[in-house]
């Protein structure tokens, strides 16, 4: 496989782009692997990559029912940030951001990580106090964070709706400058290429349809391409986690699958240099501008549970209303696409990287709608768990027993209703 470099780009330009080779293989599944990861989204691919890279493990397969990166990995609004508060979450997301900062170099693939700042709008003194508590905690624990006054915000983003007559007048903003966006497909392709290079078999069009259990262990998986045995198995299937969990005969999980939509407009000249988030009084909206110029945005969940990757129209209206209330100039743009993904929403809005009731089955799930930013650290810590059969202290509380142990990881304080955790 060709390594990317300035020289290679130049040389292939001269040769009519004929010198490039395939980015990853398309292997037939072997009858048995040491480790099988189910799901070739960002989390599954990153896990396979770090299993091989950090732990020197070989004989690993990633099984994917469709094409790699075709799930939420290819459907999200690509916001990357680490403005988390709760112990464990804070260290985890900051580690993820640090991995993002070096990811293109590490994977020899331009993931187009753009640290353009994440700006959460504030609308009241109480919201500013809440943000100050969170952002001061971040600063004290080594993460960059700022609170902007209204004047600073106006200087940086002049064209928001600053009318004092707005339903929710803007009073300032909480800002993380190192946050930003990345190109979602490129991240999936980069991890796939990196894992493949280290010998991982990525097997697409291979749906897991059942499991084989013996004496408290999973010994193999039934797939649309035959039975594949595995010594260790990891689930990283996002919105399909509860389905796989039932296939493993494990009953119910504290996860509900909900749908989340995203939208993109026709491309325009540079309008917005930051990621802007608007969330108050039932409104929820986030927006950035893609490198091609389209305005990319989203809002709340569709408010009902489903495994279908289709969205409903009331949310389109809701998101459009939010868009116009915060950036009225968007009213002149045409929407060119909108789509939906399936989110694994957990009861406290926080993820699981943990062991399971089956000795050799490991769980990676509960990403809610924040799993894109998490993917490097998720792969890092999940690989570590599978390789060493124990969790790193950073994710030690992110297991299935945390509810009965009274561990609070609920960033929003929204309580045990999955759809309230964004
Ligand atoms: C509209 C939208 C906007 C979002 N915006 C953001 C954002 O701005 N920032 C952020 O951090 N996060 C965001 N997210 C969340 C983020 O995309 C997800 O949390 C993350 O992608 C989930 O992890 P994944 O990539 O591994 O999942 P996926 O890409 O969904 O990977 C899971 C894979 O498992 C496969 N699979 C399922 N069942 C089986 C089976 N039986 N056999 C084999 N394979 C199977 C699926 O086909 C899929 O490819 C957003 C999500 C959506 C939908």
Can you summarize this structure?
The chain is α/β, with parallel strands linked by helices. It is 28% helix and 27% strand.
Strand elements, count? 18
Helix and strand pattern: HEHEEHEHEHEEHEEEEHEEEEHEEEH
Mean of all residue-level pLDDT scores: 96
Structural class: alpha/beta
Proportion of residues in β-strands: 25-35%
The unique ligands bound to this protein are: flavin-adenine dinucleotide
The rounded distance between the terminal residues' Cα atoms is 40 Å
Shape descriptor reads globular
What is the count of DSSP helices, taking H or I runs of 4+ residues? 9
The Rg value, from CA coordinates, equals 22 Å
Helical content stands at: 25-40%
Question: Which parts are unreliable, with pLDDT below 50 for 5 consecutive residues or more?
Answer: none
Largest sheet composition = 8 strands, mixed
What is this structure's SSE topology?
Layout: H1 6-14, E1 32-38, H2 42-55, E2 60-63, E3 79-80, H3 89-107, E4 118-122, H4 125-140, E5 146-149, H5 150-156, E6 172-176, E7 180-181, H6 184-197, E8 201-203, E9 208-214, E10 217-223, E11 226-235, H7 241-247, E12 255-265, E13 275-280, E14 283-289, E15 295-305, H8 313-326, E16 335-346, E17 352-355, E18 361-365, H9 371-388
Parallel strand pairs: 1-2, 1-11, 2-8, 4-13, 11-18
Antiparallel strand pairs: 3-7, 4-6, 5-6, 9-10, 10-11, 12-15, 12-16, 13-14, 14-15, 17-18
Helix pairs in contact: 2-6, 2-9, 3-9
Bound molecules: flavin-adenine dinucleotide.
The site of flavin-adenine dinucleotide has 38 residues, from helix 2, strand 12 and helix 9.
């Amino acid at each position: 496989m060709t390594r990317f470099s300035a020289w290679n780009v130049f040389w292939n330009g001269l040769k009519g782009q004929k010198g490039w080779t395939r980015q990853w293989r398309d292997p037939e599944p072997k009858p048995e692997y040491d480790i099988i990861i189910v799901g070739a989204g960002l989390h599954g691919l990153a896990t396979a990559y770090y299993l091989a890279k950090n732990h020197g493990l070989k004989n690993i397969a990633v099984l994917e029912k469709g094409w790699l990166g075709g799930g939420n990995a290819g459907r999200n609004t690509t916001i990357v940030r680490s403005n988390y508060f709760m112990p464990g979450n804070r260290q985890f997301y900051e580690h993820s951001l640090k991995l993002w900062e070096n990811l293109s170099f590490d994977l020899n693939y331009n993931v187009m990580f753009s640290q353009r700042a994440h700006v959460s709008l504030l609308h009241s003194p109480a919201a500013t106090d809440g943000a100050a508590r969170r952002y001061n905690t971040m600063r004290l624990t080594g993460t960059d964070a700022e609170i902007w006054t209204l004047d600073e915000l106006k200087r940086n983003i002049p064209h928001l709706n600053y009318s004092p007559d707005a339903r929710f007048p803007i009073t300032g903003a909480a800002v993380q400058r190192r946050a930003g966006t990345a190109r979602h497909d490129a991240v999936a392709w980069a991890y796939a290429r990196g894992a493949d290079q280290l010998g991982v078999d990525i097997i697409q069009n291979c749906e897991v349809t059942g499991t084989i259990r013996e004496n408290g262990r999973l010994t193999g998986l039934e797939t649309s391409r035959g039975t594949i045995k595995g010594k260790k198995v990891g689930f990283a299937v996002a919105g399909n986690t509860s389905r796989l969990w039932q296939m493993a005969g494990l009953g119910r999980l504290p996860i509900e699958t909900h749908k989340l939509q995203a939208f993109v407009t026709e491309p325009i000249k540079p309008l917005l240099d930051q990621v802007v988030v608007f969330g108050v009084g039932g409104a929820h909206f986030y927006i950035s501008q893609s490198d091609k110029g389209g305005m990319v945005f989203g809002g709340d969940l569709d408010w009902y549970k489903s495994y279908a990757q289709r969205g409903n129209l009331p949310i389109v209206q809701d998101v459009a209303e939010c868009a116009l209330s915060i950036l009225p100039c968007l009213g002149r743009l045409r929407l060119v696409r909108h789509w939906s993904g399936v989110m694994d929403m957990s009861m406290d809005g926080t993820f699981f990287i943990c062991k399971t009731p089956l000795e050799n089955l490991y769980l990676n799930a509960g990403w809610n709608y924040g799993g894109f930013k998490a993917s490097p650290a998720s792969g890092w810590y999940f690989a570590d768990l599978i390789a060493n059969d124990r969790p790193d202290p950073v994710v030690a509380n992110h297991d299935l027993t945390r509810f009965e142990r009274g561990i609070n990881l609920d960033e929003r304080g929204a309580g045990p209703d999955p759809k309230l955790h964004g």
